Every structure is written in C-alpha cells, then in structure tokens.
Amino acid sequence: MTPRRRLHPIAIIAGVGKELKSMVVPLLVIMVAGSRNDFSWRDLIVPLVAVAYTMVMGILSWIRFTYEWNEDNLLVEEGVFVRKRRSIPLERIHGISVTEGIWQRMAGVVQVHIEAAGDALGEAEVTLRAISREEARRLQRCVEQAKNKAENAAHPEPLANRPHPALFTLSMKEVWVASLTSGGALGVVAALCAFLSQFSDFIPYEALVRDIQSTWNGHGRWYIGLFILSILLAAYGVAVVQNMIRYASFVVRKQEDTIVIARGWLERKAVSVPVARVQGVVIHENWLRRFFGYASVSIIHAGGRLDGGGAGDVVLCPLVEKRRVASIIQACLPEYDLDAHFHPLPKRAQRRYMLRPLVWLVIPTILVAYMERPWGMAALFVLPLGAWIGTRRFRIAGWALSSRQLALRSGWFRQTTTYLLKRHVQSLEASATWWQRRKRLATISASVMPIGTRARVVDVDEEDAASIYRWLQGEKGDQT
Questions:
Q1: Which residues does UniProt assign to the signal peptide (predicted)?
Q2: With bands split at pLDDT 50, 70 and 90, how would you rate the model's confidence at 153?
Q3: Residue 222 confidence (pLDDT)
C-alpha cells in the first residue's frame, strides 16, 4: 500500500490559475460597472478580495487533499469545510487520462483524470492535479493488475515490460494538413461573440449597428465584406494553431485490452480507453478531406470527457487515409467490420432530400433577390445548388446490417458513418411522420452510452426499418 501523501505544491498554482481564469470576465464586468466612468482604488476591493479568497482556498484545498492506494482500492480524502472520503475499487476504473500542462511540465509532474463507474457524466471521478510520472505509471499498472485479477487472467510479465508498437502516428506534415482541413473557425468566432456579449451593457452595440447600416447604404459594402472576411481568416488561423498544438506527437498504441492515445505539444495528454468501454466507431469525412481521400476516426466511449471533446467522444485518428481505416480499426477493435455493404435509400426518398434544404432557402433568397435587385437576382442560383446538395445527401445516406453490427451513414458537407455492435445499442427507434408514411418511409435512430449519443438515417424504406428493429429484438432472419 502506498503511504498517504499530498499532491505536488505546483497543484496550488495550477488550481488557483484555473479558477482565476474563469473569474477574469466577471471581475472585469464588476470593475467596469462599479466605476461608472470614475475609476478609483475602491473599485479594486471586490476583485482583490475574490483573488485573495481564491488563493487561500487553493492552499487549504491542497493541504486537505490526500490520496493513497493499495492492490484493490484508491482512497482519496478532500474538502476544506466538509471532509469527504472516497474509496474507488481499481477494477472499476474505466478510463485514465494523463495530462502535462504548462505548470505540470515546469515541475516535472503530470495531472491524472480518473473515471470510474457511477461518476457524473462529463466529470472525472478523481483528479490528481500534480503527481510524478513514475507514480502515474505505477497507478496505471495497479489498475491493469486489478482488472486482470478480477478476470482471473493475470499477465505472466509486468505490463510496463511488454513492447507496444505504435498502431498509428501523425507526422508533422499530417498534423499540418489535419489542422488546415479540420475547420473550427466558426467555433472561434462563436467564442469571441460569447466573450463580447459579457460587455453588452458597456459597448454601444446599437450605435455600431447604425454605423454599419449607414456604411452599407453608403456603398461601403466592400469594406464591410473585407472586414468580415478578415475576421473569418483570423479565426481560421487561430483554429489551425490550436489544432496543431493539440495533435502534435499524436500516437495510438494497444496495450493488452486498452487503447492508449497520446498527443499534445504545450499540453501533453495520454488517454487510456478500455476496449470493453468502446460503444462504437465513427468516421467523419468533410467535403475537403473526402476529395483527397482522407477521413478522421473517433470512438464512442461510455463515459465522460476523457479527451477534452464532447462526452463519450475520443479522437482515434485526426487524419488518416481512408484505405488505412479498416486495418487500424481491426488492430484496435477486431469485432468491428468496416467492409460492410451499405444499402441505399429508396428512389422515392430523393425528392424529399432535394426539397429539405429549399424549405430554409426559398424565403431568404427571394427577399435578397428583391431587395438587392438587379444584382441580388444572382442569389436565385442558391436554390438549384440547395437541391443538388440534397441529391448528394440522398446518394450518401444508407445503412448496413450484419448479425452483430449496425452501420448508419448520413450527411454530405460532413459525412458521418457510425458502426455500432448489437450488444451496445441501448435503444433503437423507428419513427415516421405523416409525410413519410405517405411515401412508406421511416427514420431510424440508434442510441448508445453515454446518454444522448445517437446516429440516425432519415427516409429509410419502412420495410427495411422494420427489419432493423426486429434485428435488435433478436428476430433477424437471414439479413447479412
């Protein structure tokens, strides 16, 4: 049993820094609101008190946080005012994420997120903010040994001594290409808008809108267009840099029954995902990557945010040639069959796919064409483009079924193909609107853990939808 110990003192700085980072915007708002255009030292009282309280609580939290583990359990005690003690069986730990942030790297330590059964969705059961690398490796070995002991399948040699060749790596060139083609600019713009919205009481947005309207009416449209384009290009550049930092030194290894994904430059991270916790495989292809024969692969993890993305989403391959995807999945998850034959949608569903984009485009396009005539008439070309996109979505959508696997494919700008094993499907819904029933069509939607993770295909033949539904109920015939 390891002796009871505290985290490295750098955990104080990391924890306080994280809290202060989330307090910057509220404190700035309080200072600006309190000054009323007449700033004085009194306006600093509330922010200084908040910063001092955060620092004191950070130190007390570090003092009161202790941890230890033995062959069977991880024991954690924490809490400043209310003491909380937790005992987590090592065999019930489902995922371990090891991160090296800037503060941790300065001190030569790592941060460990541990996810166990029964934790809240999206939150790690335990976070060891600063422990040594060797201690993190010992904890990982103890977790693996506890799992093997529970399964009565002890390893003949220590896990750390076994060679684990890389199944997938990204070169710097591939990291660059992945960052260029991953998008993310709209996310940066949305984050900027959310930040600026915090100052809506102090920034004269109405006056700015009036200035923009007068500039637009004064034939300054090109300047406004160039300004918007420059913002999007800057956001795109920020997104590219973020992705390059995130996916640098990307490598995937298979250690016994665990997939280990390591990545990162400024913040190094290693994520351990037990194969038994993988609920599905998702292949994403945006239009640009699809043109060059590339895709990205994610796995659905039955748990929280191990990799900084959405709950249950772990990136397995940020960028990979499509011809290599099947071999990588076969090495990591041999139960999945990516060579399944997809069934297309019935021909009578094509018109619905063509009309679906037009529902949102007709009224705005007509208004633009009328208000900005004669040049606005060019906007009418958007309508046949929307119908063409609907046709492409129709041709891509499909489904595949085997004795133990369901695959669903949809989208066009971002084509998504999801592979789910039968035993992992939590629910399957076959629904139909009044318009779908007239065409003998239905929508298939399959859900897995975590809650809210689902894949669906719209306008499947109703007989095919019924056969998929029977497949889940165990009544499938000779469908392959």
A1: none
A2: very low
A3: 66
Mapped onto helix, strand or coil, the DSSP state of residue 36 is: coil
Contacts of 443 (CB under 8 A, 6+ apart): 429, 430, 431, 432, 436, 456, 457, 458, 459, 460, 465
Tokens of 310: 């959405």
* 91 and 180 share one domain: no
The answer to whether 263 and 244 are in contact (CB under 8 A) is no
51 and 86 housed in the same domain: yes
Domain hosting 191: range is 176-247
Q: Of 103, 127, 162, which marks where a domain is finished?
A: 162
* Separate counts of helices (H) and strands (E) for the chain: 14, 20
Residues 46 and 143 in one domain: yes
| Cβ atoms < 10 Å from Cβ of 350 | 16
Does residue 462 sit in helix, strand or coil?
helix
Helix, strand and coil in the chain, % to nearest 5? 50, 25, 25
Rounded CA-CA distance 62/304 in Å is 25
What tokens does 32 get? 């600006």
User: Is 34 found in the same domain as 77?
Assistant: yes
Strand-pair partners of 269: 99, 263
Q: Convert the pLDDT of each residue in 124-141 to its tens digit.
A: 578 888 888 888 888 888
Whether the pLDDT of residue 148 is over 60: the answer is: yes
**Mean pLDDT, to the nearest integer, of 364-389?**
86
Averaged pLDDT, 378-383: 87
* CA dist., res. 288 & res. 303, Å (int): 31
Residue 65 contacts residue 77 (beta carbons within 8 Å): yes
